[in-house]
């Protein structure tokens, strides 16, 4: 009991980034002051040992990093600035040392410090087996600036903020070999994409700060699934041109069915997929260039009823969230 | 996969209580508008199957009720009005039917509707075994009205809002017999206290709305532990008079060591413990009476360094969070 209290004290932040924080960890709940010019954005995600990670697929610090990163990614997809997070952790009765947990929290803290986020609360409980880590993240976005999935219109350009399929490719190798045994330099970028995803906060903020009408979603599941969510929410269809999807030479030389598996259905890349009018696309591209961020036109919105189509070799395929059929 | 999406749709609220909610479930994150006259209060708590509940100790609806209630109790202890909640659930691969989960969510919804709270987000993942349910709850309190543990001063009255030890007594019987087999009417209030805790929101609000200087804490752990938190945070000592602690005749006839176990160390009663100046105590008592709420003077604050003392039969005992020693 006393050891637990000491440990909680050891992970309690000693300094604050956000001046709006009034009460952090240490009372029944956290309190922060509000700002009427902004709206609060909130997301929660859970990672489970044996389902989302194992000690073989992820270094300890990366488990913490990723648990927070996937939530920041949700905030980024709404155009928000991340501000606060809470961590609830269920710790197995054996197999996890205090030093292991410290590493997990250190991984979160490094990412949180980068975005000046404060850890403002949490819970620590025990569980028979399987470590479970749930992060709640809060951010703010200027009123009326939110970037919803339902904002897409016919003839819009469909864009993504970076390469896809990297995390799934990396995971495929991690499931065969512990990360401690993978040192092939060609694989490392993909291993890193799985373990240390980078939430696209800056891209989300640029999109929120423009007055362009943008639909936006983060790619936590595969491209097919995320495009389908935009298509459904906006009541349009999405047409993706296979050759326009950014791919590394390493991915390009894999068999086509593997490329599809990683890119269309793999997920966990945490890039953003969005739409913007054809007229505004060149301006947006320029804006991203000025900010040293990448953005790629991978297709267009057509009138339709929630279909996602893939154009490749003069053939059009209709994708579902988990597979496809030929037209 | 599609079944999961259907299920999530089935638990997604179709109407909203709070007009400040802008985006609920269905996008990357939820969004609500802020109000500068108030501050946001946020808490998170996790309940784990086999640790906090089993199907033998709790009816399904009560699991949901309690997962939300313990969070509302944290908000109540800060004087806040509850507004929103998010639910992240890890579902074992076997042993839990969709109907079971629906019952859990129904238990949460009934309590949420009572307090006009909106379910605004969540996550659904799988786990090998042990259902894990994490609730994040948000509320608001008027600026400067927050009721911190650090507000206690020497000579203050120490009060509690209701009887203690009921949940622990109930749990003791639930661990011997499944709740389906307990029908002794004398035990039912204690079983109910464990399964269906009532967060003291109204009491918290009355305390926040007065201008009295109040320290406040909810009793999730035992009385000894919660009093110690106030003593530590306020840098004072707490003196509790055993005979002043409200006890039912049923508890009074138990051996003294059982009474102590339930009341001092049992916890999960989710009553509030607080302090207020001697001068203002009669006014507070009157205010609670007018609102048909109970409140009991159980002791006083003395100058000191974080000790919790229990006065009984002309003897003073120093309590620790988990036990005691004689002076």
From TrEMBL, chains A, B:
<keyword id="KW-0418">Kinase</keyword>
<keyword id="KW-0547">Nucleotide-binding</keyword>
<feature type="binding site">
    <location>
        <position position="221"/>
    </location>
    <ligand>
        <name>Mg(2+) 5</name>
    </ligand>
</feature>
<dbReference type="GO" id="GO:0009030">
    <property type="term" value="F:thiamine-phosphate kinase activity"/>
</dbReference>
<comment type="pathway">
    <text>Cofactor biosynthesis; thiamine diphosphate biosynthesis; thiamine diphosphate from thiamine phosphate: step 1/1.</text>
</comment>
<keyword id="KW-0460">Magnesium</keyword>
<dbReference type="Pfam" id="PF00586">
    <property type="entry name" value="AIRS"/>
</dbReference>
<feature type="binding site">
    <location>
        <position position="45"/>
    </location>
    <ligand>
        <name>Mg(2+) 1</name>
    </ligand>
</feature>
<dbReference type="InterPro" id="IPR036676">
    <property type="entry name" value="PurM-like_C_sf"/>
</dbReference>
<feature type="binding site">
    <location>
        <position position="149"/>
    </location>
    <ligand>
        <name>ATP</name>
    </ligand>
</feature>
<feature type="domain" description="PurM-like N-terminal">
    <location>
        <begin position="26"/>
        <end position="141"/>
    </location>
</feature>
<feature type="binding site">
    <location>
        <position position="52"/>
    </location>
    <ligand>
        <name>substrate</name>
    </ligand>
</feature>
<keyword id="KW-0067">ATP-binding</keyword>
<feature type="binding site">
    <location>
        <position position="28"/>
    </location>
    <ligand>
        <name>Mg(2+) 4</name>
    </ligand>
</feature>
<comment type="function">
    <text>Catalyzes the ATP-dependent phosphorylation of thiamine-monophosphate (TMP) to form thiamine-pyrophosphate (TPP), the active form of vitamin B1.</text>
</comment>
<feature type="binding site">
    <location>
        <position position="324"/>
    </location>
    <ligand>
        <name>substrate</name>
    </ligand>
</feature>
<feature type="binding site">
    <location>
        <position position="74"/>
    </location>
    <ligand>
        <name>Mg(2+) 4</name>
    </ligand>
</feature>
<dbReference type="InterPro" id="IPR010918">
    <property type="entry name" value="PurM-like_C_dom"/>
</dbReference>
<feature type="binding site">
    <location>
        <position position="268"/>
    </location>
    <ligand>
        <name>substrate</name>
    </ligand>
</feature>
<feature type="binding site">
    <location>
        <position position="220"/>
    </location>
    <ligand>
        <name>ATP</name>
    </ligand>
</feature>
<dbReference type="Pfam" id="PF02769">
    <property type="entry name" value="AIRS_C"/>
</dbReference>
<feature type="binding site">
    <location>
        <begin position="122"/>
        <end position="123"/>
    </location>
    <ligand>
        <name>ATP</name>
    </ligand>
</feature>
<feature type="domain" description="PurM-like C-terminal">
    <location>
        <begin position="154"/>
        <end position="307"/>
    </location>
</feature>
<comment type="similarity">
    <text>Belongs to the thiamine-monophosphate kinase family.</text>
</comment>
<keyword id="KW-0784">Thiamine biosynthesis</keyword>
<feature type="binding site">
    <location>
        <position position="28"/>
    </location>
    <ligand>
        <name>Mg(2+) 3</name>
    </ligand>
</feature>
<feature type="binding site">
    <location>
        <position position="218"/>
    </location>
    <ligand>
        <name>Mg(2+) 3</name>
    </ligand>
</feature>
<dbReference type="InterPro" id="IPR036921">
    <property type="entry name" value="PurM-like_N_sf"/>
</dbReference>
<keyword id="KW-0808">Transferase</keyword>
<feature type="binding site">
    <location>
        <position position="45"/>
    </location>
    <ligand>
        <name>Mg(2+) 2</name>
    </ligand>
</feature>
<dbReference type="InterPro" id="IPR016188">
    <property type="entry name" value="PurM-like_N"/>
</dbReference>
<keyword id="KW-0479">Metal-binding</keyword>
<feature type="binding site">
    <location>
        <position position="105"/>
    </location>
    <ligand>
        <name>ATP</name>
    </ligand>
</feature>
<protein>
    <recommendedName>
        <fullName>Thiamine-monophosphate kinase</fullName>
        <ecNumber>2.7.4.16</ecNumber>
    </recommendedName>
</protein>
<feature type="binding site">
    <location>
        <position position="74"/>
    </location>
    <ligand>
        <name>Mg(2+) 3</name>
    </ligand>
</feature>
<feature type="binding site">
    <location>
        <position position="74"/>
    </location>
    <ligand>
        <name>Mg(2+) 2</name>
    </ligand>
</feature>
<dbReference type="InterPro" id="IPR006283">
    <property type="entry name" value="ThiL-like"/>
</dbReference>
<feature type="binding site">
    <location>
        <position position="123"/>
    </location>
    <ligand>
        <name>Mg(2+) 1</name>
    </ligand>
</feature>
């Amino acid at each position: 009991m006393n050891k637990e209290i000491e440990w909680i004290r050891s992970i309690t932040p000693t300094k604050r980034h956000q001046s709006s924080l009034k009460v952090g960890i240490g009372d029944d709940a956290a309190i922060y002051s509000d700002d009427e010019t902004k709206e609060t954005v909130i997301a929660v995600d859970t990672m489970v040992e044996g389902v989302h990670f194992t000690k073989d697929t992820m270094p300890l610090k990366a488990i913490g990093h990723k648990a927070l990163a996937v939530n920041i990614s949700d905030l980024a997809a709404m155009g928000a600035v991340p501000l606060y997070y809470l961590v609830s952790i269920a710790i197995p009765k054996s197999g996890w040392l205090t030093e292991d947990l410290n590493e997990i929290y250190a991984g979160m803290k490094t990412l949180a410090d980068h975005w000046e986020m404060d850890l403002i609360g949490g819970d620590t409980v025990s569980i028979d087996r399987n470590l479970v880590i749930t992060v709640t993240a809060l951010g703010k976005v200027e009123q009326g600036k939110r970037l919803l999935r339902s904002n897409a219109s016919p003839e819009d350009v469909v864009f993504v903020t970076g390469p896809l399929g990297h995390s799934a490719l990396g995971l495929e190798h991690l499931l065969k070999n512990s990360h401690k045994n993978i040192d092939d330099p060609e694989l490392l970028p993909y291993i890193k994409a799985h373990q240390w995803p980078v939430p696209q906060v800056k891209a989300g903020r640029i999109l929120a700060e423009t007055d362009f009408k943008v639909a936006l979603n983060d790619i936590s599941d595969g491209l097919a699934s995320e495009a389908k969510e935009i298509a459904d929410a906006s009541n349009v269809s999405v047409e993706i041109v296979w050759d326009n999807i950014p791919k590394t030479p390493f991915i390009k030389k894999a068999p086509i069915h593997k490329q599809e598996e990683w890119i269309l259905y793999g997920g966990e890349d945490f890039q953003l997929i969005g739409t913007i009018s054809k007229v505004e696309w060149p301006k947006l591209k320029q804006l991203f260039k000025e900010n040293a961020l990448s953005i790629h036109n991978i297709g267009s919105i057509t009138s339709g009823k929630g279909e996602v189509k893939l154009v490749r070799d003069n053939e059009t395929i209709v994708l579902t969230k988990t597979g496809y059929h030929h037209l």
